[in-house]
Protein: IS6 family transposase
Organism: Microvirga aerilata
Amino acid sequence: MFKGRQFTAEIILWAVRWYLQFPISYRDLERMFSDRGIQVDHTTLFRWIQAYAPELEKRIRPHLRMTNGSWRVDETYIRVKGEWVYLYRAVDATGQTVDFLLSPKRDAAAARCFFRKALKQPHTVNPRTVTVDKNAAYPVAATAIKRAGELWRFAKLRQVKFLNNIVEQDHRRIKRLVRPGLGFKTFVTASRAIAGYEIMAMVRKGQVAIALANEMKAQSELIAALFRVAA
């Protein structure tokens, strides 16, 4: 994974971990490196995030704790090349992240794709209740995946906006990380960075059994172990 890179794996993973957890820009991170006597350009940091954020998500997912069967689903907005796209997100009743999906559209097809993606994850269960807002696309999507046998046929869809406060509050965590970047240039670069934001948010919430919430040393050791490098 790190062959041919100018910097060591330890330095790269340190940069990736900090950028994905804290609201800093690439130029901020460049200055942080400079303060430690390491000269690395902000464009190089961007390439590291694009390369390693999706890989980090893939390697952490098998270690996530199981979420419960009460889902709170909502979508928020992310700007990509001057236009709004939609980030579908779900948390369970305790605030643990179920899954996420960046979509160019906000319709029944997009909602259906999100539900299918979430249901396939090893850390999720088929929900008994799915709480959503008044978006008319959700009942259509839920009916379609029930008919296909993917969603439990007795699962209850609740369109009660105030019950979704927990997921709406959780959007702030991701928005806070996106803001310093001043928007994304392409849908692909947005998808890769957001995958990193979301998976590190799960780590910080304590969704990985071997890395306690907000234990920075344990998180560093976890990521080093996943990439088989020294912590």
